[in-house]
Amino acid sequence: MDIIELFKYLVSTKSETPDDGGLLDFVTSYLEGFEVLRVDREDVKNLFIYKKFGEGEHLCFAGHVDVVPAGDGWKHNPYEAVEADGYIYGRGTQDMKSGVAAFLQAVREAKHFHGTLSLLLTSDEEGEAVNGTIKVLEVLKEKDMLPDVAVVAEPTCEEIFGDAIKVGRRGSINGYITLKGKQGHAAYPEKAINPIHQIATPLAYMAGVDLDDGDEHFAPSKFVVTDIRAGMQVTNVTPNELKMMFNVRNNTKTTQKEVRDFVTKHLDGLDYDLRLTQGSYPFKTDTDTKLVRTIDKAIEKVTGMKPKHSTAGGTSDARFLAAFGVDVIEFGVKNDTIHSVNERTTKEEVESLYKVFKTLIAIWS
């Protein structure tokens, strides 16, 4: 297969989370001569496949073969990889079977390398991610096989291919507030404690507020209210309690402590409970590391552009690699239709991504 044939095959294989659609078995057969480690957990399939070429560093390409459900309203069958209007349409074309195809083909064609090349693939990135990449990394740590550096091929480019890589990601703190009141008749508000009225004034100083100033790499951590509900959906009864949910995509300056202090400051004197959870933690790879310098060179060699170093967006499995002490960046095709109906990318972007990864492998020393 050439890179486009491979890409179309991956897209045409339905693999909605946590189903891998048999793709990890395909990858195993496609990389003939590589050592194979399967770390399947419950209904999640995970593959680590590697080849030691020499005594140098261990470069890993990581990603996921699972996709979100296609949904309705597509112009074409989302699992046929249809070419039309200058694009290839299909679920996962951007997120992230383009990336998987690009590094799979690049690694397959590698003849020489000054160390170890590996792939880490999961079918649980779009789901809860509890039995995916992190489980593989735990096993690799036990076996003293953790990579030195990793490239996660999530879609990162913004306007044109090659314009951005991710050198870090924000974390995500979820908050749940229960504000307690006293139910009563709307005609006698003095006999009740209305939590809606209580939250009204402090909310103006909380919603959308930056919790820090950010820095050159991270945007400020912002307090984003995502849900407020109270009452019985009637007009003559005031509620007994109010529930509010919020999210803070936090940078390295703001932790759960700062979030809790912020809520405490503004709800001082009110009767409430606060619960915080955190699904991911912020990280940033030093932009002066060999990994960042070398991927920059590879991108510039293929595209003529020096990419910007971004930390924007949601989260990815790169957070797990960073937590295990692996230098990690993300680079992939444009990100403008992921998870949407009629997700698509171009042949040119897929081919260019493959060339960047081939160049990265070739110039790594």
Summarize the structure.
This protein has 365 residues and is an alpha+beta fold. 28% of the residues lie in helices and 24% in strands.
Provide a descriptive summary of the structure in words:
The protein is of the alpha+beta class. The chain has two domains: 3-169 and 282-363, Zn peptidases (Aminopeptidase); 172-280, 2-Layer Sandwich (Alpha-Beta Plaits). Helices cover 28% and strands 24% of the residues. It is built from nine helices and 19 strands. Strand 4 and strand 5 (87-89) form a beta hairpin. Helix 1 (3-12) crosses helix 3 (93-108), helix 3 packs across helix 9 and helix 7 packs across helix 9. The chain starts with a helix and ends with a helix.
Set out the fold topology.
Elements lengths: L2 H10 L10 H8 L4 E4 L7 E7 L5 E7 L17 E3 L2 E3 L3 H16 L7 E7 L10 H10 L6 E4 L11 E3 L1 E2 L2 E9 L3 E2 L9 H9 L19 E8 L6 E2 L2 E8 L7 H11 L5 E9 L2 E2 L5 H14 L4 E3 L7 H6 L3 E4 L13 E2 L1 H17 L2
Parallel strand pairs: 3-6, 3-7, 7-18, 8-17
Antiparallel strand pairs: 1-2, 2-6, 4-5, 5-19, 9-16, 10-14, 10-15, 11-13, 12-14
